[in-house]
Amino acid sequence: MQYGSYCPQMEDVSAVGGEMQYDAYDLGLLQQPVIDRRTQAAEGRARLTLPHSASQAAPRSFVQPTQRVERDTEPIEPARYAPSHFTYDGGLVARSSSSQNELASSPAYKANERRHHYFGNLDHQLPQENTVNERYQEDEERHVADTVPQRITNSLNLPHAPRMLVQGIELVSTHELPDRFRAIFPFPVFNAIQSKSFKTAFQSNDNLVLSSPTGSGKTAVLELAVCRTANIFPVGQYKIVYQAPTKALCAERQRDWQKKFGSLGLDCAELTGDSNASDLKNVQSATIIITTPEKWDSMTRKWKDHEKLMQLVRLCLIDEVHILKEARGATLEAVVSRMKSIGSQIRFVALSATVPNSEDIATWLGKDPNNQHLPAVRERFGEEFRPVKLQKHVCGFQSNGNDFAFDQTLSQKLPNVIAKYSHRKPVMVFCATRQGTQSTAKLLAEWWAKASPMGRYWEAPRKRIKMIDPNLQDCVDSAVAFHHAGLELADRHAVETAFLEGSVSVICCTSTLAVGVNLPCHFVVIKNTVTYAGGVGMKEYADLEVMQMLGRAGRPQFDDSAVAVIMTRQEKVRHYEKMVSGQEVLESCLHLNLTDHLNAEIGLGTITDAYSAKTWLTGTFLYVRMKQNQNHYRLEGDIGSGDLDERLDRICNRDIELLQEYELVTSDSKLETTEYGGAMARYYVNFATMKVFMDLPPKAKVSDILAALSKAAEFQELRFRAGEKSTYKILNDNPLMRYRIPVDLALSAHKVSLIIQTVLSSIDFPDEEKSRKHRAQYNTEVAIIFQHVHRLIRCIIDCQIQRDDPVSARNALMLARSLGARVWDDSPLHMKQIEGIGPITVRKFVNANIKTIEDLERMESHRIEGLVSRNPPFGAKLIDKCRAFPKLRISLSAGHNSVSKRNEGVILNMKAEIGFLNEIVPVQFNRKAVYVCFLAESSDGRKLHFCRISAKKLDKGQDILFSALLTSSTQSVTCYVMCDDIAGTMREASVQPKLPLSMFPAPKLQSADDSELRGNKEPRKSGINNSHPRNFNVPARGHSKLKTCWE
């Protein structure tokens, strides 16, 4: 709980001449000494406290601010201001909505102070603003409505909860809630925004769209909706989904709501890109699921696998719904439209920053599941409801140069901007690049050092701060710092601490500091509105990023106002003025990757033909906006003419044809996803990435598959940064690099491939001085790559299995094991999977001719200890760990009486026996469940059988029966068995049946055309056109370009 300064002056008519009733808590507090009550209030443990000293803030004007409260009902007329006869001189402060900047209050305290004022001072004054230097919490979005006091009318029936009006809105007491929910809202009165939304959020089942400024208390409205759901559904019979755009916001919400709702038996589970298998289990038992749109999209694409879970969802909470206008907003739009269409009774509550067309969001969501033709209830609040008034300025500058030259121009203008707007208070400067943060910090530090004491706009450091980075140390001596992800963690923490303590007054940082780290300031500068984005060069910030950066301005515990300046090109000024003033119309981005979402809906059965595709499209936000602004939505191949109905037809047909062209959707009258389209949806693969995977050549080598992975659209942002290429050239020339890049390093795919191979080969990152500064970024990008690469390689495996290409599948499985273990599967490095063995230890073992885990297991413990210079019982423990490593066995045989002759050749019934050599079946390894893959192929490259089995089912081994078609007496059958994601586990067995030549058909001489025709398979039931050039019997599109993986 944070305490601050200002609440509108209020009059309690019912209290005149009467006694206020105290509850037991207030009576207990009245028995305590004043000093104890003051201490409790400072710690946030009391509702009863003494008035704190007034700040130096000037009295507020009597002028009533322009009211901007909108709802699809009659407007509310603001009440005239009338001074109270019981106003306290020191500034009566009532608690409202758990504000960041409020003082505690109680009925007892109010009554006491009103009496004191009535008898002691009859002069009427406006309330003064007060401040308390308390710790600020970023994500508590509740506030005291910052407005001019209003005349108060009738009192509530409850004598301890007087009726109050703010901005013409009657404030609602938390006593309106059932007792069990009151602890969730640790304040007696909801603020204006929450009170206005109370009836819809808590007393109805209507969908709700709430649009208001940052920090105005929107989160409490979501909590009211949660309470409504918990109040009307039995425990265990419902689930609630909360979606937010960032993992940082999801993590914070999970921590906050687990504390609040956990006592009610409502467990919260976080489900984001960082979640693992155990987190998925938690989701099954949790009541509130906190997730990102991307992760929930992935879950709902498998809706039939999670049907029971999905049917329990009764409430969907959407935070930051205004991300609809960004590229990733298409995912949010698709998943919400999907939840609307699956037939369950889901209520939607959406929060948005101030946008001019929130009514379009309301139209899209609909009033409720049974009245989609009516809009949702809409509440819109203006900037006057912001707890800390934010002055926003957009400064445009002329530039004829490139973005880097323009950035230098802005650097020279920055001191004047700080001098004009900073008010000598803490400053945060957001820069486009990491290098830009350093150069800007250096410039400001030099400007400060050269200025006279009177000409300095911030104070000197209060104490000496030690930094690891010498450039940072030079800047910090002038109370200036830079901050970005490439800094050492210790330096980042030191900068954050120094800024909070006041030893650093200016931070130059990248946009990443706008989320996750709580560093509010008085003055924010966005120096240039572009950032570097790899292959596309410089691009504009996303609107959400800009709003997050602006949101750093405002310190409720210190100020009642803040300032933000956006420095941009002159031609961009109007765009940012509209954005920061809430005048920019919210548009859809679903059309930019509609193909991906259509494929997912076809897989779910929501779309079965072009007509149902158009029907689904009419339920999206895209359709709502196309009805009003058709010209904004121009697609490739769309001429943009005709009425809306015709355009929807063209859009749907275009994307369906694209999916059919790449064999992702059938060509039958009823649309269905093929196995390839199913894999694309199942593994959440981008359509652009899927096209690369579908163009893999037959019998693809490991290098081909690695190149395809590296070209995935998911990695396109991993570009070479300034100064990095020389480091990656060193890595590329390392003799341990298995697949060198034979061309100049330029593409994101080059960097991704080198990073993957550096990890798998355990290559040491260069330690030269010029490379050392890139290590942190390298580690960050390793984490990003390995977050995505596992599902991408799974998609490739599934596609190659479906194509009956065992060579490609075997190589993809080998790469999957390597990626899972982070070592090459066929190298001695696979011994690193044993706890206690690192790269240096592996090298010592290899020098002693120990190259596998089996070799190590056969060693004597004392010899192991001698090789690695370790003391007993290190060797014995290591051998025990080796014994627990999964060791598979396989045998293969052909039945003597299982041969049948066909026109094409001989059918042979085969039996493979698989199991573990371990005394105890390794159901888990390195805390992960063990799964076994079995692959059988003929020597001429045909897939015979594939299956995946849990290790739990192999405690007594298992026989796998399959048939093999042999077309010549020289052919053989080979079977492979391996553990998923565990390197060094593959084992194989081969059989070459000794069958007489007479059993096989005589070879025929065929023309190339005849051979090609005979190679074509029978059409699949799915309706795929197998004459498509991507079939392996003919050259696939683009294969002629694959002479090298990197051309």
Automatic annotation (TrEMBL):
PANTHER family recorded: HELICASE FOR MEIOSIS 1 (PTHR47835:SF3), HFM1, ATP DEPENDENT DNA HELICASE HOMOLOG (PTHR47835)
The record ties this protein, via InterPro entries, to: DEAD/DEAH_box_helicase_dom, Helicase_ATP-bd, Helicase_C-like, Meiotic_Crossover_Helicase, P-loop_NTPase, Sec63-dom, WH-like_DNA-bd_sf, WH_DNA-bd_sf
Ranked from the top, the taxonomy reads:
Eukaryota, Fungi, Dikarya, Ascomycota, Pezizomycotina
Would the keyword Isomerase be found if you checked this record's keyword annotation? yes
* This enzyme's EC code(s): 5.6.2.4
Q: Which family does it belong to?
A: Belongs to the helicase family. SKI2 subfamily.
- Pfam families linked to this entry: DEAD, Helicase_C, Sec63, WHD_SNRNP200
Q: Which GO terms describe its molecular function?
A: 3'-5' DNA helicase activity; ATP binding; hydrolase activity; nucleic acid binding
**Where is region (Disordered) located?**
51-72, 1000-1047
Keyword check for Aminoacyl-tRNA synthetase:
no
Source superkingdom: Eukaryota
Q: Where is the composition biased (Basic residues)?
A: 1038-1047
Task: Provide the alphabetized UniProt keywords.
Answer: ATP-binding, Helicase, Hydrolase, Isomerase, Meiosis, Nucleotide-binding
Domain (Helicase ATP-binding): give its ranges: 199-373
Where do Basic and acidic residues bias regions lie? 1011-1021
The name this protein goes by in its record:
DNA 3'-5' helicase
Q: Which residues lie in Polar residues bias regions?
A: 52-67
Q: Please state every residue range assigned to the domain named Helicase C-terminal.
A: 413-602
User: What catalytic reaction does the record list?
Assistant: ATP + H2O = ADP + phosphate + H(+); Couples ATP hydrolysis with the unwinding of duplex DNA by translocating in the 3'-5' direction
Name the source organism. Rhizodiscina lignyota
Q: Name one GO biological process term.
A: reciprocal meiotic recombination
- Top-level EC class as recorded in UniProt: isomerase
